[in-house]
Amino acid sequence: MKVLVIGNGGREHALAWKLLQSERVNQVVCVPGNGGTANLKGCQNLPLSVNDFPAIGKFALEHNISLVVVGPEVPLANGITDYLQKLGLMVFGPNRKGAQIEASKSWAKSLMQEAGVPTAKAAVFDQAHPAKVYVQQQGIPIVIKADGLAAGKGVTVAETLTQAEMAIDAIFQGQFGSAGNSVVIEEYLPGQEVSVLAITDGVTIRPLLPAQDHKRIGEGDTGENTGGMGAYAPTPIATPDLMSRVQTEVLENTISALNQRGIDYRGILYAGLMVADNGDFRVLEFNCRFGDPETQVILPLLETPLDELILACVHQRLAHIPPLVWKSGAAATIVAASAGYPGNYQTGELIAGIPNAETSFTKVFHAGTKLNAQREIISDGGRVLNVTGWGENFQQAIAQAYHGIQQIEFSGMYYRRDIGHRVLKFIG
């Protein structure tokens, strides 16, 4: 079976790597891929834009692609699934209507309220002045969100009134492009974030292992929000009782509400939760695709063949698949970023040491890399590499990941030294 993976990040490298472990998958093509997928045995890169639907469709038909797996949210929101399905291709990822669950925070908030999903109180504004008045009335801390897609960077947890007003101005002044046509203002919820990625065929929905991302650039969870600086799985914060509630109150209720809106949602439904100290939770947001970097810690622990799960969703027979099988232990990933990220950053830096970082318990997933003319790996993004380690427990997994990243060098390389600090404190 030939599989086409859309995207060029660490998530897509992890997807290609996992798919190629199946005896049914003999080739993966990544559009456009990165330096890691270029060197992955059984994988090739295709230098097309993820939004060039006609060229992607033409290639898939001419080369007998059996399955298309869409990584990023932007092509999903732009309707890649709808386009390719009309050509008769099998696609894993929701259609354009379903992708609104991530593409519009206000749409998702309305859906959650309709479905009875526990979520934060919020209001939506399309002008700055009434948004600021609302913030003054509600008080701080408060959360300011650009309504549309902003690559994980359109959220500000404002701790002062000035910070809230600056965030509102930045959104309406175009810092996040069309994502800033409106703003969603939410109550601040204390606690810890948990990522629950679930796989669904539009009727049945099954959660994967719960993970915890580290979104802030600075150690101690300080500084600006990023696309994610590291993650670990499974998080013990998501207890069996909590996951049982998430299954019924969040996942099943949301799929039911989507069905009531006439949306056949097949793919990943990713719920970002805030879990309070007392174990209660609220849904902060939904995403319509595999998380990044959560995918890089979930897939190394998955024993069930990934292609089997994906095909079951495409054919709407997920209910007939046996319970998912997982490796024992834990996994952790550390993001190596370019200097300046999440602001302006440099690219084109030569990367050394990747082969030394990889062992039987460590894998380097490329996030923002490419090959230069000499086929050397160079940096090509803000988040450059994800060094993932796994072991029998959290201490081993985190130690493997940090040992791996210490073998790697490139000019300006930055990474957090405290990934997993919350779980290490939790387990004592």
- In CATH terms, the superfamily of the largest domain is ATP-grasp fold, B domain
Low-confidence stretches: none
- Distance between termini? 46 Å
Principal-axis shape equals globular
Q: Would you tell me which CATH topology of the largest domain applies?
A: D-amino Acid Aminotransferase, Chain A, domain 1
User: If you compute it from the alpha carbons, what radius of gyration comes out, rounded to the nearest whole angstrom?
Assistant: 20 Å
Highest CATH level, the class of the largest domain: Alpha Beta
Proportion of residues in β-strands:
25-35%
The quaternary structure here is single chain
Q: Biggest sheet: strands, sense, closure?
A: 5 strands, parallel
Biggest sheet, spatial arrangement of strands:
3-2-1-4-5
Counted beta strands: 22
* DSSP summary: helix tally: 15
EC number: 6.3.4.13
Protein name: Phosphoribosylamine--glycine ligase
Family: Belongs to the GARS family.
Catalytic activity: 5-phospho-beta-D-ribosylamine + glycine + ATP = N(1)-(5-phospho-beta-D-ribosyl)glycinamide + ADP + phosphate + H(+)
Quick description:
The chain has 15 helices and 22 strands. It has 428 residues and is of the alpha+beta class. It has a five-stranded parallel β-sheet with strand order 3-2-1-4-5, with helices on both faces. Strands 12-15-18-22-19 form a five-stranded antiparallel β-sheet. Strands 6-9-7-8 form a four-stranded antiparallel β-sheet, sandwiched between helices.
Q: What would your notes on this structure say?
A:
It is a single chain. The chain has four domains: 2-95, Rossmann fold; 121-187, Dna Ligase, domain 1; 192-320, D-amino Acid Aminotransferase, Chain A, domain 1; 330-425, Glycinamide Ribonucleotide Synthetase, Chain A, domain 4 (Alpha-Beta Complex). The chain has 15 helices and 22 strands. α7 crosses α10 and α8 (128-138) runs antiparallel to α9 (161-172). With 428 residues, the protein is α+β, with helices and mostly antiparallel strands. The chain has helices at 10-19, 35-38, 53-62, 73-77, 80-86, 96-103, 105-115, 128-138, 161-172, 240-260, 295-298, 306-314, 354-357, 394-405, 421-427; strands at 2-7, 27-32, 43-45, 67-70, 91-92, 122-125, 142-146, 155-158, 183-187, 192-200, 205-207, 212-213, 216-218, 222-225, 230-233, 267-275, 281-287, 330-337, 362-366, 369-371, 377-379, 383-391. It is 32% helix and 25% strand. The radius of gyration is 20 Å and the shape is globular. The longest helix is centred in the middle third of the chain and has 21 residues, at 240-260. β1, α1 (10-19) and β2 (27-32) form a beta-alpha-beta unit. The strands form six sheets. It has a five-stranded parallel sheet, sandwiched between helices. The relative contact order is 0.13.
